[in-house]
Automatic annotation (TrEMBL):
Protein's UniProt name: tRNA methyltransferase
SUPFAM superfamilies: S-adenosyl-L-methionine-dependent methyltransferases
Keywords: Methyltransferase, Transferase
Alphabetized GO MF terms: S-adenosylmethionine-dependent methyltransferase activity; tRNA (5-carboxymethyluridine(34)-5-O)-methyltransferase activity; tRNA binding
Native source species: Cordyceps javanica
Statement: the UniProt record of this protein carries the keyword Manganese: no
Cytoplasm keyword on record: no
Pfam families per the UniProt record, alphabetical: Methyltransf_11
């Protein structure tokens, strides 16, 4: 007969009695899954979500941004006027992100004359941070204006207060305790420029010392800035998480459903039997994302619901 802990695992509830349990659980039900399904997952993630694209287009010319949990890198080249860095826990997804510009990965801009070109990353710190996970052994490859590294979202290898904006799309809901979800949002907040710092940061944003689902809705209609526009005083972040309230979705989750669950990913390959992988999700109830941002010390600028997702734009508090 299954124990209570085993029953919780079968039901998809994280058996997180402590941080080590949570890390081990996520290693099995999140990290290992994405390593296994990376190419198949990437092939289904080629179109930027409209609200995320609008957020990126609204950033000032030359702004420095960070995409935590960048996956295959589909957001890194949405706005060519930005300098974006990307990180992901999955070395396989990072590999795909690095090859987007060379035809080695899926890119919605690959046929455009403005498609990014591959270059060698110039930051030794970025190369060093990625070295343990980089099986290719050489310097990391990036497309123009971006660098992509393997990194844990709870220990980001980037300078504090170095970024004009951050995005974290469909990532935080994979952390199996509230403490870890709040900590992840805190990591994002700490990388944003303090509100009083108006000038652009100089030098690489990568630290040289201690490293520390589905389509969204309609675009926001924000007008992109023109080259030379003054940099915004307030640096902001954008986060998306799966919602509990999905009564109109084919999944059928609603307010009465369990918030912690395993969601199947069926990988189909020609000539081989289907494989099903179980990914852990914490489904956010209405208002919970705003509560987590506040608990992390952030300020919610705006928030809303977009086709099965809760989203929020947040900033650091005014000093």
């Amino acid at each position: 007969m299954a124990t209570t802990r085993e029953q919780k695992q079968m039901e998809g509830v994280s058996p997180a009695a402590n941080a080590a349990d949570a890390e081990a659980y996520e290693s099995t039900h999140v990290h290992a899954v994405y390593e296994a399904i990376a190419p198949h997952f990437s092939s289904t993630r080629h179109s930027p979500w409209p609200r995320v694209a609008a957020f990126l287009e609204s950033q000032c010319f030359g702004a420095i941004g960070l995409d935590v949990g960048c996956g295959n890198g589909k957001y890194l080249d949405v706005n060519p006027n930005l300098h974006m860095l990307g990180s992901d826990r999955s070395s396989e997804l990072v590999r795909l992100a690095r090859h987007r510009g060379s035809g080695g990965g899926s890119s919605s801009n690959s046929s455009s004359s403005n498609a990014p070109t591959l270059k060698t990353a110039s930051s030794p710190a970025a190369q060093k941070a990625d070295a343990p996970e980089n099986s290719e052994g050489g310097p990391s490859c990036t497309f123009s204006g971006t660098e992509v590294v393997v990194a844990d979202g709870l220990a980001l290898p980037y300078r504090l207060g170095a970024f004009d904006f951050v995005i974290c799309i469909a990532v935080v809901h994979h952390l199996s305790t509230r403490e870890r979800r709040v900590e992840a949002i805190g990591e994002l907040l700490s990388r944003l420029r303090p509100p009083h710092a108006m000038a652009a940061s100089s030098g690489p944003a990568v630290s040289t010392s201690t490293p520390s689902g589905d389509d969204a809705g309609v675009a926001t209609g924000i007008t992109p800035p023109t080259p030379g526009a003054q940099r915004n005083i307030k640096a902001t972040g954008l986060v998306f998480v799966w919602a509990l309230e999905q009564a109109s979705s084919r999944r059928g989750w609603d307010e009465g459903s369990e918030q912690d669950t395993l969601v199947p990913w069926v990988m189909r390959a020609k000539g081989r039997p289907n494989e099903t992988f179980q990914r852990y999700y914490h489904l956010y109830r209405k208002g919970e994302l705003e509560e987590d941002i506040a608990a992390a010390g952030g300020v919610v600028e705006e928030s809303g619901y977009e086709r099965d997702n809760w989203w929020a734009v947040f900033s650091r508090p005014q000093l």
